[in-house]
């Protein structure tokens, strides 16, 4: 009995000594792991933005840490993000339309991955309308002239044989909240709203007629960076980009996990998750590259206000070399 007790006591002492010896090693390993994470600053316009889903999904799944990146997702306006790219304070900007427009004017920035080639905007009307054709000679609200809402509205009406310059009146009224209020009050007959605004409008009795993003191809969501960063911080950019690109396979093949992300991270109501997932897949770019011709309208819109823009080909707006390296490594 005493021998067994002595043996157990000695065993506990040995284990205690081992734990004391191993604890500093474990702490050093943990510190080393933390120190090995490379910081990367990625800008986005909203913390719960559907168009930035792959970026937010990568954080949700822990892919940035897997790739050795301490990702700092910072909400900022697109103009500040663009300045940050040029100063080196921002590694990636998620507003790729702004990156395309800047590159079209000769600013040394490039799009390096694209998420979608269409928006998540909807044409939402007063409840008495059931088809877009019924909006002929009616008033349609957008955020501002020349915006993505304007582009989507005009493309959708043209698709259904309605001339946006003659057959409807387009009214610029500002943000989504103002457009919802104006629609409910009857100030106009229909408006363009994003997916979450559409849900709010539907709760107020309005009717979503169609997803306008499927009728016009344009860069929506993705990552852009500076030419300088591509050269000087290439490894950090590659690892950050890989973390984001890894979510593409999950989005394509695991509907349940993607829906869980939408609900948990983007506050999408469970009853809306299926519809939003399906809309995402309608404009999703599984290869991460957009057809150059789908940049043409954004490119032209940027250059029309410049007095003497430098000659930049459409191919000069993108640099998919990092993406190519990542895709080769994952085969």
Keyword list:
331 residues, alpha/beta, D-Maltodextrin-Binding Protein, domain 2, 2 domains, five-stranded mixed β-sheet, three-stranded parallel β-sheet, 10 strands, 51% helix, 16% strand, globular
Describe the structure.
With 331 residues, the chain is α/β, with parallel strands linked by helices. The protein folds into two domains: 36-117 and 218-330, 3-Layer(aba) Sandwich (D-Maltodextrin-Binding Protein, domain 2), CATH 3.40.190; 122-215, Periplasmic binding protein-like II (D-Maltodextrin-Binding Protein, domain 2, 3-Layer(aba) Sandwich). 51% of the residues lie in helices and 16% in strands. The strands form three sheets. Strands 7-6-8-5-9 form a five-stranded mixed beta sheet, sandwiched between helices. Strands 2-1-3 form a three-stranded parallel beta sheet. Strands 4-10 form a two-stranded antiparallel sheet. Helix 6 links the parallel strand 6 (139-142) and strand 7. The longest helix has 35 residues, at 2-36. The radius of gyration is 25 Å and the shape is globular.
Provide a concise account of the structure shown:
This protein has helices at residues 2-36, 53-61, 63-66, 78-87, 96-104, 148-159, 176-185, 195-203, 227-232, 234-253, 255-266, 270-283, 296-303, 321-330; strands at residues 38-44, 69-75, 92-93, 109-116, 122-125, 139-142, 169-172, 190-193, 207-211, 220-226. With 331 residues, the protein is of the alpha/beta class.
Order of helices and strands: HEHHEHEHEEEHEHEHEEHHHHHH
**Structural class assignment:** alpha/beta
Radius of gyration: 25 Å
Tell me about the biggest sheet? 5 strands, mixed
CATH fold field value of the largest domain:
D-Maltodextrin-Binding Protein, domain 2
Distance between the termini: 63 Å
Mean pLDDT: 89
Shape: globular
Approximate helicity band? 40-55%
CATH architectural arrangement of the largest domain: 3-Layer(aba) Sandwich
Which CATH class of the largest domain? Alpha Beta
Q: What percentage of amino acids are in beta strands?
A: 15-25%
